[in-house]
Amino acid sequence: MALDERARHHLYQRLEEHLGAEAATTLMEHLPPTGWADVATKRDLDHLRAATKTDIDHLAELTRLDIERFGDHLRAELHKALAEQTRTVVLTAALANAGAVIAVAGLAFAAARLT
């Protein structure tokens, strides 16, 4: 049976009749404001603490794995970008050198024709 305010007041009056106002008040203050089903025990709290710790440990492991995967992805992208940049620099240098060789060859031919 759930205690509503009316039932609590009736209980207080009966206690007051038998124990006096001070003892009745003290005893009533020890009752939960709702039913005992709503009161958590140490066992409940221990179970909740264990479940919460398990959840946090699991999330920490998932976070660690996500960070590792992100690091692997970042390294792969960096490697890819550096390889592409290296190819671009080498190709640009090769083309510049080829242009310089052609220019020098053209100058050499021109100088040879002048003489």
Topology:
Blueprint: H1 5-19, H2 21-29, H3 42-114
Helix pairs in contact: 1-2
Spatial shape? rod-shaped
| Total DSSP helices | 3
Q: Low-confidence parts lasting 5 or more residues at pLDDT below 50?
A: none
Overall pLDDT score: 91
* Rg calc: 43 Å
Word description of this protein:
Helix content is 84%, strand content 0%. It has helices at 5-19, 21-29, 42-114. The longest helix has 73 residues, at 42-114. Helix 1 (5-19) packs across helix 2 (21-29). The chain is built from 3 helices and no strands. It starts with a helix and ends with a helix. It has a domain at 1-39. The protein is mostly helical and 115 residues long.
Features of the shown structure:
single chain, 115 residues, mainly alpha
Concise structural overview:
With 115 residues, this protein is mostly helical. The protein is built from 3 helices and no strands. Helix 1 (5-19) packs across helix 2.
